[in-house]
């Protein structure tokens, strides 16, 4: 990044001296006025921020593609009363460009950033920093095609929910706590439940599906890679329902999980 001279600018002597630097993943953007955008970013150390990028929609903009969704970007910002302003950017990892040419990866990344935006909206810095590290790892794994996009997404969602305080349970009854392999899979009760605790109509899951869910939560990719398509479908369906149960808003991008 070029050094920004500390000089009077735009009528304010403190314009640059109050600026701060951070880096983060771009979650989404909104159009603002003629050529500007509001950029929503999950940063490594400042939580989720919303900032204005002036002139970013002009083809000649100095920001280039650094503020497109999924990009990992270094930022210099100036605090303003209503919303911070982005003054300089530099790409660290061009994940946005790496993901645009693969439909499934792009869909999975879209669901990840939409979830991250929801989960970090009112989150404290500690929780948001954990969410940042998880999201960055998941987007990077998508970009290098480390596993199937739908499995990377499902694993990401389970772990993001766990950080948010909604860790599902797959190794003991999530209601009474009795240990062992249970096969009733309850969204409202947060995981598997034993025969005694399972409410009527609770869906049944085979041992393989429960083991797959536990592996996705733990990041055990050896188990995940051996899963059959039918198990994968049931596991992703449970995770999509479990996520939706805990979020207030319906996530449009979750439709990618219907493909199983
Ligand atoms: Zn029980």
Automatic annotation (TrEMBL):
User: What's this protein's name?
Assistant: DNA repair protein RecO
Organism the protein comes from:
Enteractinococcus helveticum
Cite the DNA replication/recombination mediator RecO N-terminal domain residue spans from the record.
19-95
> Keywords on this record?
DNA damage, DNA recombination, DNA repair
InterPro entries recorded: ARFGAP/RecO (IPR037278), DNA_rep/recomb_RecO_N (IPR022572), NA-bd_OB-fold (IPR012340), RecO (IPR003717), RecO_C (IPR042242)
Q: What is the lineage of its organism?
A: Bacteria, Bacillati, Actinomycetota, Actinomycetes, Micrococcales
Q: Which Gene3D superfamilies match?
A: Nucleic acid-binding proteins, Recombination protein O, C-terminal domain
- Please indicate if the UniProt record lists Methyltransferase as a keyword: no
UniProt similarity note: Belongs to the RecO family.
Q: What does this protein do?
A: Involved in DNA repair and RecF pathway recombination.
Q: Which GO terms describe its cellular component?
A: bacterial nucleoid
* Any one of the GO BP annotations: DNA recombination
Q: Does the keyword DNA damage apply?
A: yes
- Any one Pfam family here would be RecO_C
